[in-house]
């Protein structure tokens, strides 16, 4: 009989956290230590010491294990965080943080939210980079700045792993750089934008925002080097990046920054004489206003977008969808129905210019999921839940985070229909997506769901299980 496996304490040290993740990935693939060691061409006894947190692994081993186990970079990111924590604690003359073993953490470091409230400037001064971490505060999800070192001390494995990048650039992103001198800058930046969109889909907005804003800055410097058509094309592309930056901030729950970047996108769309993009930005302003609960702004911006929309594009249909939700927020079901019908007719007609790429994702399923959200706002919860169920079934496989948003809203609809078991069960599915992507749209919806469920049905087993899962994935500030 083999020896029992050493119990790892991910909340105790960075090495335990790394070893626990390696063990979890290895178990998921059904590999023994010896089998994994043979696949990465490494000594099994040494690999076992790394997993048991007895020794710190080389970075190359973290990379090799991650590749074989399909960890999508998590072992490398945890290694980087462990390295940063070791460097900080070993800094000579650091009176505030004298050198000590990682396992010797005080109880106050494991539970005080005050330890999370370290600003980015303070983190920079200490040489330890800051990470944005979601916490539950008064039933809402808010993001606080926490150093890598503090993250590993203040959270368990589930919360730490919920931050995909741990404050460092994702390996798939690479370092954002200016185009090479012999490259076409427009083609280069267009390709970069596509890569960043893919990374957003994989890792969530907070892993991508710094790179997007960096590229916007690069384009600002490139303006002086271009003239004529090239400069106009650059301005149009810069507007597209600004709209993308707005979307990332909106998904991350920072509506102030989302508004700022939409304003920049609109300014640059007009400067680049891109009227289709300007109309799209007005539609996005309507969408953002709906998320912020501002019905009149949603209606005004949506109607402006409809008026501006060029025939042969999907822009009028997109705008009608967001206008409709504004009417629903005003409890005007008739106006909402009329706007959704306008959108459905335009999509059903299908006579779109193939050269127009704005809103190519718009279809009847997209309209249905937004109409379900409006039904929920109008108090028609059972109809909303059924609408979300249909839309989720028809959501393309690649739209992982959108599916999480729809699941969270479907759970809210079941809560409104007084169906706590269904609400909690579907909330669990949404939580898996929210924890992986750090989407504030998902996590905020789930935080509200949790407060309502616990206030009405705390004794329902499914509700209690959902509450425990949420508070494990998103630390509470209470």
Automatic annotation (TrEMBL):
<dbReference type="GO" id="GO:0003677">
    <property type="term" value="F:DNA binding"/>
</dbReference>
<dbReference type="Pfam" id="PF13560">
    <property type="entry name" value="HTH_31"/>
</dbReference>
<feature type="domain" description="HTH cro/C1-type">
    <location>
        <begin position="22"/>
        <end position="75"/>
    </location>
</feature>
<protein>
    <submittedName>
        <fullName>Transcriptional regulator with XRE-family HTH domain</fullName>
    </submittedName>
</protein>
<dbReference type="InterPro" id="IPR010982">
    <property type="entry name" value="Lambda_DNA-bd_dom_sf"/>
</dbReference>
<dbReference type="InterPro" id="IPR001387">
    <property type="entry name" value="Cro/C1-type_HTH"/>
</dbReference>
<dbReference type="InterPro" id="IPR011990">
    <property type="entry name" value="TPR-like_helical_dom_sf"/>
</dbReference>
